[in-house]
Design brief:
Blueprint lengths: L3 E7 L3 E7 L5 E8 L11 E2 L1 H18 L7 E8 L5 E4 L9 E2 L7 H8 L8 H4 L8 H11 L3 H6 L3 E4 L1 H9 L9 E3 H4 L5 E2 L4 E2 L1 H7 L8 E3 L2 E6 L10 E7 H8 L8 E5 L3 E8 L10 E6 L7 E8 L3 H9 L9 H6 L9 E3 L17 E3 L7 H27 L6 E4 L6 H11 L3 E4 L4 H13 L6 H7 L2 E5 L5 H16 L6
Parallel strand pairs: 1-5, 5-14, 9-12, 15-21, 21-22
Antiparallel strand pairs: 1-2, 2-3, 4-7, 6-8, 10-11, 13-14, 15-16, 16-18, 17-18, 19-20, 22-23
Helix pairs in contact: 1-6, 9-14, 10-12, 12-13
Length: 499
Amino acid sequence: MSEYIISIDQGTTSTRAIVFDKQGQIVSTGQLEHKQIMTNPGWVEHDPEEIWTNSREAVGQALARANLTRRQIASIGITNQRETTVIWEKATGKPIYNAIVWQDTRTQDIVDRLAEDGGLQRFQRKTGLPLAPYFSATKIVWILENVAGAKEMAKNGELLFGTTDSWLLWNLTGGVNGGVHKTDVTNASRTLLMDLRTLQWDEELLKAFDIPAAMLPEIQPSVSEFGTVEGNNLLRTVKITGILGDQQAATFGQTAFEKGESKNTYGTGNFLIVNTGNQVVESINGLISTVCYQIEGEEPVYALEGSIAVTGSLVQWLRDNLGMIGESSEVETLAKSVEDNGGAYFVPAFSGLFAPHWRPDARGVLVGLTRYIHKGHIARASLEATAFQTAEVMAAASNDAGIGFGELRVDGGMVKNETLMQFQADILDIPVVRPKIIETTALGAAYAAGLQVGFWSSLDQLKEIWQVGGEWKPQMSAERRTELLKNWDKAVQRTLDWA
């Protein structure tokens, strides 16, 4: 009997496989980190073959730890780091270049070139997205222009493009032996190549970027049947029935199914998503319009999103680049060694500023330093930077959608940090609510996969499963909040016009 769902969560720093039961509880987990390849300033790459190998090993770990076989798995969900771009040879399955990661900023020259005709908003009406290095299209262009012979191979139909969901799906379903080349609407909506309203690749956009349509995967609803695992794989014969980009998956996992409901994920970066129902809401405050999810046979659900490039990765930077902490979890202890930030503000614009500013010329700054400041203050300023950036995108979302927020549902690795969660509630002046299962990205992919095969019966059943795991209420005075936000804004201004 098929009693479980397994999610493959292909993230920016690691790939995980998580087994869930009928109550949406975690049964077992497998996880492996992959290398972050940074050969030039602003360049971030991954090895797609390492990711594929790690995904299989993570699945093996998860199944072994729960003593399960494929016969007990009802279906598979996939969720993934969005925008990260893989191009591989159809005949051999070999990538022609490393995956270019969503954080990578090397394509700014291509953005500038395309923006000469119509500005950064040239394609925003159709795609919901500004022209920015963040999205997949300019990464595809860079690979085709910089890898010898790539452009000709693409024109001849010899190359395939995909975000990492497509890369895993193609390999899982047979690879060179009939692998399925598909993606879902949420991932397709992050490429700058899909029309938000038709949910199809757009000829005008493909022509503008000079990208052959034959490279692109077929687009399907997030909750639908994508293919069956083939070959020598522990999950062979199991169907893949749900795919969502990581932030949309987290929204699904938080059961934010109704218009006006939202979630904020605290991971490598931070991502606020606000459900706008079956309507595309165009942002005038620096957010992007995107697909939230689509269930097969139903209208798509849209969202506004505020994307912040550097939050959890700032803690990694303190650990790996400065050696201030030995483990990421130690940052909270260090931050709690001081009462406040001591006047220090850290704006981590390492890859420019994303929403709501969209300033690729920005670079990170640490300001307000005096002899009084020590590493405890810097640790606290680093955590506070996450909360300040979240406050900026929530204000923008509120203005665009014309709604107020009664609470903020949160998930991701950083929500274990209670000091950060309390400060987030204080700076937003609303309760911050953490679910019992904080692995909502993987949970959302599991929910999607399970819905398609009847493992769960409805969205209402999923809402019943969701449980509160923690809540923080604001305790800060209005005067103190105003002062902190004013100083943060001054710090942000210092980041601009560097690059």
